[in-house]
Structures
1.
Amino acid sequence: MDGKKLEHSSDVDPARGAAARDAARPPREEVVRFGISAAPGIVIARAFVIDTDEDLSVGKTRVPQDMVDAEVAKFKSALDATRGELLQIKTSLADSMGEDHARIFDAHLLILDDVMVIEDTEALVRTEGYNAAWALKEVISKVVASLSNIGDEYLKERSADIIDVKRRVLAKLLGVKMDRVLNPSEPAILVAHELSPSETAQVDRRVVLGYATDRGGRTSHTAILARSQGVAAVVGLEDAARLIETGDTLILDGNCGTLIINPLDATVKKYKIEIEKWKEFEAQLLTLTGYPAETLDHHKVDLVANIDLPDEVRSALDYGAEGIGLFRTEYFFIAHEQLPTEEEQYKVYRAVVDRMKDKPVTIRVLDIGGDKIARYLHRSAELNPFMGWRGIRFLLTRKDIFKTQLRAIYRASGHGRVRLMFPLIVSVDEVLKAKEICEEVKADLIRARYKIDPDLKIGIMVETPSAVALAGALAKEVDFFSIGTNDLIQYTMAVDRGNTKISYLYQHLHPSIIRFLKMTVDAAKKNNIPTAICGEMCADPLAAVVLLGLGIDEFSCSPNMMPEVKKIVRSVTYDECKTIVKKILQYSTTEKIEAHVESFLKERIPDLARFKEGKQHA
Ligand code: PEP
Ligand code: MG
């Protein structure tokens, strides 16, 4: 059996009876599945399957009329008990991982207090006489179905939170203990159709060695948490939870996005060698922490970190970041139940700036919209959110929010080296309008005698084809460019960045992308401003060679990807990277470009995870 029967959680120990089960079962074939590499690391362990949908079986029964009040009271006390449980988890998570991660539970608490869910459930009990557990299940199923019909990725993620809350309340109503379901007593890899952020946040890292999920993308909360926890993860596997049984042996390769189910002895042997090599390689990478990101012929680039939550500054510094190249402020907004005030924001920005001391901190103003939605800001869904009310468009129509954030950022700028960045720019007009608002804010703060940096550097994300086409004109208006390839590729290739079906089109080294990057860097150089890159592309080893050769000045990526990028920079010469770029600019297919860069890098650093069998070029 697997983790579906929560009431017998001792039975779900993956080590339990593994030998007996293996003997009883016909030998299973080795199956390889490719997903999205969400957090690095390679693990061989038993599977522990948790299925979040077919969990607690709830029967439909009728409550006698004279018991209805008692049934409603039972429902309300289940809600109270769940609230207490969530607050407890939130507090312990705040202790272990910081306040920002703990805020993930604010969404759960909001769901728990949702008047419609409570009233509709109570109505089903009172008017139809159904048992509360069944009534709640019905109400929640309808909410989840209506969210999934909208087809919005963010709302789908919220469905995971809603289902998680439902499970907790049902467990209380049915008197079922859920405590051990996520944490097997022996080390194992958690397998789930979907793992909610709250589940991910609660796992015990001593026994959960990896995550394999059918859903999710690199930017989902679960992936973000997995990276912060240092737990290997592969997401977007589509049907892994259906294929795998608790106790199956798995090889999870978070470096390559590969999952091998019931591997043959020869495969296990091969991966054991891979694990040793990976450990050695990681240890060797970490020895580079104190060294500069400098090529063999002494061309230096700035290696800085992307952070999504303020707490991640710690790992940025641990991995030797020379600054913060992208602080995505939207996660902090999303984690709040309502708009954070100027003071709340100031405290957060100031804390990051203080911890980075004299190192630069690039704060991107709110890039809300697309797949990053705060309930209190986006009340109605858009048909095409990535093309919609997002980034600077949002801010220029919600000047109140924009100004409050700018005030907080400018105030933090008085205490360190802050840089300000605008997202999703498509026209010079937008930059001029945004800068005008900055001037107003600055003047107000100076008048009020706040300590600010009067020369605060202002830059833009170059992440739309329009910004590339206008790079020459835009460069005249700003102090720096930061290329956001996550979006630039999506908009250039017309490929939704989170859609697994068409992910084969999401190519970092597509000839049109290389040309766009060159146009951007050339325009910046002509206007004497630096160019950074903060898209995921920068942590792709082949791309790193090309970005170097293009003359990008600053590389910004997730903290734990920085050592590998540094290794690449320190293993090549600037001259040979420039020659490579010259050559690949003559090619018109991704295959030819990749083959050319790969043959160079493979010879230089054969140990890279990129060169292992089965690597998915996500
Ligand atoms: C990008 O688009 O490359 C980027 C870094 O921004 P985000 O991933 O937040 O859209
Ligand atoms: Mg972007």
2.
Amino acid sequence: MVLLSNRGPISFTEGTDGTLEGRRGAGGLVSGLAPLVAGTDAVWIAAALSDGDRRAAAGGVVEADDLKVQLLDIEPATFSLAYDDVCNSLLWFAHHGLFDAPRRPALGRGFDTAWQAYRDVNRAFARAAVTAAPEDAVVLVQDYHLCLVAPLVRAARPDLRLVHFSHTPFALPEWLLALPDAAAVELLEGLAANHACTFHTERWARDFTACCASYGVEAPPTAATPLPVDVADLERAASSPACESAGAELERTFAGRRMVVRVDRIELSKNLLRGFAAFDLLLAERPEWREQVTFVALVYPSREGVDEYVEYRADVAALVAEINARWGTPDWTPIHYDDGDDFPRSVAALQRADVLLVNPVRDGLNLVAKEGVALNTADGVLVLSTEAGAWAELGDAGALRVNPFDVVGTADALHAALSMPAAERAARAATLRAAATARTPQDWLEEQLAAGPD
Ligand code: F6P
């Protein structure tokens, strides 16, 4: 098996003595897939993202953390055009419905250069897969960064089987209008050249086939194969000394108060602003919660090469400061905002959350929703957006539903969660946990290997 993804499972840094040190990378894709691939013969091919990665790339396939990783040293300007301009400014926005019509990107001539860079990056991945894959191997292609890999690999290696998995939702046909028509067709044809395209939910698979139909592209077989959580891996993390000491610190800091928790990348689709606005409204309308509840927001910046992310991060920090100034007291800061990306602390907070807020405007899955439910030992209540892919698995299992655009509804859901009787919390937590852990990582892998025609 060969796995292709933009972000690799290990990021390398150079120590003061010049040696390379590998550290498990962040993000849903890596935490979902790394445990599956660890200890197997699979080669994981990814882009080199840092100087350390570029040095590691020169060594060919490197082994780290039980994984065989091959990093591709792509020319930085080409990589940045493909990643920032095409993947994250254009495709991400289209798949998550983040454009408002009057501001759709005005694609100048620069688009052609960026799109060519996207092609070049896909070509580099295709070449590496063609070289690395043993005969008759399966190539698992991950995400919207690599939509053009399949036709190139198929032409060179008809023996290989290709399955593309989208970690994101898929655009509605009208959202793909943000791309020039020829690019949209190339994108869809690139995906259609896989033996199968898999998604977290039936809903995203339907949106993809609707796009194919609207652009006259014959859709490949599709399947809904939501990424599971690896319970053993989570439990290992939770029982580590770092998590235990982070947990003890959280307990000391928030002793006697309830905790509403969110753990997210600072990302437009995650809808942090409306989440904090809902907490603000809760404190305004229900004074009984003042000084009784802390919103513990453990978030981390990403994609800072894209202007919208930088602006969004500043807007989020400003709103948090405003809310804390409005309601804070000498003994109580309403929102504990930490953008330090501390994994053990996030795990410890998910274990102890009284309420976990997951309110994205659109999200492929939201692994945090499943991880949070699996880790939680406080009968925490999950407040979940219907627009997260995880809603398909957890919506009927006891999550409290929110429309992510409805701030009033979100404030009411937070109140309902905080006031829920203990017996109901326990019952919902049990059914949620069963639903979140019903499928194993092995199930997901078998589904990928079996997807498409025999
Ligand atoms: O959810 C889509 C996704 O690309 C994941 O695959 C990844 O874990 C996350 O977004 C982070 O994205 P990036 O690699 O751009 O930081």
3.
Amino acid sequence: MIEREISKLQTATLSRIQAATTLEELESIRVDVLGRKGSLGHFSKHFLKLTPEERAPAGRALNTAKEEIARAFESKERAFADEALRQRLESEWIDLTLPAWGPRPGSLHPVTRIQVEIEELFSSLGFAVLDGPEVETEYYNFDALNIPTEHPARDMQDTFWLTDGNLLRTHTSPVQVRGMEKLGPPLRMIAPGRVFRNEEVDPSHEHTFYQVEGMMVDRDVSVAHLIYFMQTLLSAIFKREVKVRLRPGYFPFVEPGFELDIHCLICNGSGCPVCKQSGWVELLPCGLVHPNVLRMSSIDPEQWGGFAFGLGLTRLAMMRYGIDDIRLMQGGDLRFLSQF
Ligand code: FA5
């Protein structure tokens, strides 16, 4: 029976189509079955040998087989096309809702943060914020501050001398002199900046660190003014009660001179490498401006008086943030810096 043969071929072809895994495979099945010399065409040739009664059901079976097989090809091709599209979409997929890469946001260095706070505080108290050069002349760094060439105070600060006779400033105090020369009395100024000393580096000493110079020149300025401004400064920075002590200190450009020390906030006074086991950190030398210094800047000490201070800004930042080694400050380690 030819119908049975056709039906067998139909079933076999449908399962070959079903099992095909590539378009090429499908194409070769098409050639095998529907091609000019394909198996279905082979049946058509046999039709001539059939009786008219046999021909009608055989023709129907052949048409059904052709239709079924054509439908199976079509649906398999669609499945291949769908799969190809799915794979392409998957490989080209991007999530447009993800944040863009962009540069990583930075943050202000702890020293800069405190510097900005101090500048804002003193500006609100009527102080000008001045800047001065990091490469200074010997005159501004020493002579104009009552530190003559032979004075032992020059040995207190190991200096980086430049070959042209200038130096890297060892403190921000030269800006006092520049401020007095430029603005004259009455004067309220601060001068934050970087200073350099040829020192042995340890947990509390750097060769490059920051200070804030402060100066007020007016009539009848006394130690009471000095203490008031120092207390205002420290309570604004620490936002809590901090223990301080004032002891006599010698600086040729102030008379009397003081050292204001802060109770070590790293160890709470019990002793650590930052406070050199003493419980106190030297933070803020200060005093009343020496008459010679006023005179050198053409200010009459009979008419005017003043106070000055030189705050160790890097050490202040260490106390504020509990940083126990000054070398971290300029080490450039992002693990440290990204905490601020
Ligand atoms: C001076 O530099 C004076 N010009 C300060 C001054 C100004 C006194 C005005 C009186 C009137 P001194 O050398 O002590 O003083 O330094 C001031 C502060 O800088 C110190 O209290 C300390 O907090 C900080 N400091 C000094 N040396 C270092 C260092 N190597 N590393 C980090 N901080 C330092």
